[in-house]
Write a structure and sequence with these properties.
The protein is α+β, with helices and mostly antiparallel strands. The chain folds into two domains: 32 residues, no CATH class; 138 residues, no CATH class. Helix content is 57%, strand content 15%. The protein is built from five helices and five strands, in the order H-H-H-E-E-H-E-E-H-E. A three-stranded antiparallel β-sheet has the order 4-3-5. Strands 1-2 form a two-stranded antiparallel sheet. A hairpin with a 5-residue loop joins strand 1 and strand 2. It is rod-shaped. It starts with a helix and ends in a 12-residue tail after the last strand.
C-alpha cells in the first residue's frame, strides 16, 4: 500500500495533502481495530476504573450529606442556645423554699429560691430548660412563651414546664 501511495504521489495523481490524509486515516483505522485480546482487557480495565469512580463519587456524596446534617444540627443547637441565653432569667432569687428539677444529666438538682419563683414554676409561668454548662448551673429558668418555642424546636431541652398551670385537682 505504501508503494502504491508513493507511486501515485510521484505520478502527481494524488496531492501531498491527500496522501497525508490517507496515511492518517489508515493509521486511525489500524489503531481502532486493535487486537481482540487487547480490546477485551482494555474494556475490562475501563469498566473497573469507571466502577471505582462511581464508588468514590458515592462515598464523597455520603460524606458531604453527613457533613451537611452535622452542620444543620450544630446550627439548630446554636439557635436554641441563643434563644435560651436571650430569654433566661438573669438571676434566680435566693430563698429558703426548695424546688427539685431533674437536670440534663438525669441528676436531681435542688433549687433554693423564693416562694414567688416556686409559685411561678408551679403555675406554668416559668419553665426550666437545659443550658450549656457555664460553671453556674446546668439549667436556666425561662418564661412560658419562650418555653413554648423551645418545646417546638428542641423538646429534649425542656426539663420542667407545668403547661397546665396548676390546674391539677389533686392540689386543690
Amino acid at each position: 500500500m505504501q508503494n502504491l501511495r508513493d507511486k501515485l504521489l510521484k505520478a502527481k495523481a494524488v496531492g501531498k495533502k491527500q496522501a497525508r490524509a490517507a496515511k492518517t486515516a489508515a493509521r486511525r483505522e489500524k489503531k481502532q481495530a486493535g487486537s481482540p485480546v487487547g480490546d477485551a482487557e482494555e474494556l475490562q480495565r475501563r469498566q473497573a476504573y469507571e466502577a471505582k469512580l462511581r464508588e468514590e463519587a458515592a462515598a464523597a456524596r455520603a460524606l458531604q450529606t453527613e457533613r451537611n446534617a452535622a452542620e444543620q444540627r450544630r446550627a439548630h443547637q446554636e439557635r436554641v442556645n441563643n434563644i435560651i441565653a436571650r430569654h433566661a432569667l438573669p438571676e434566680i432569687e435566693q430563698g429558703e423554699q426548695r424546688f427539685f428539677i431533674v437536670g440534663p444529666d438525669k441528676r436531681l438538682c435542688r433549687l433554693y429560691t423564693s416562694p414567688r419563683i416556686v409559685a411561678q414554676l408551679s403555675d406554668g409561668q416559668l419553665a426550666a430548660v437545659a443550658a450549656p454548662f457555664d460553671g453556674r448551673r446546668a439549667f436556666r429558668l425561662i418564661d412560658a412563651e419562650t418555653a413554648a418555642r423551645i418545646e417546638a424546636l428542641a423538646p429534649e431541652r425542656l426539663l420542667f414546664w407545668n403547661k397546665d398551670g396548676g390546674d391539677d385537682p389533686a392540689y386543690g
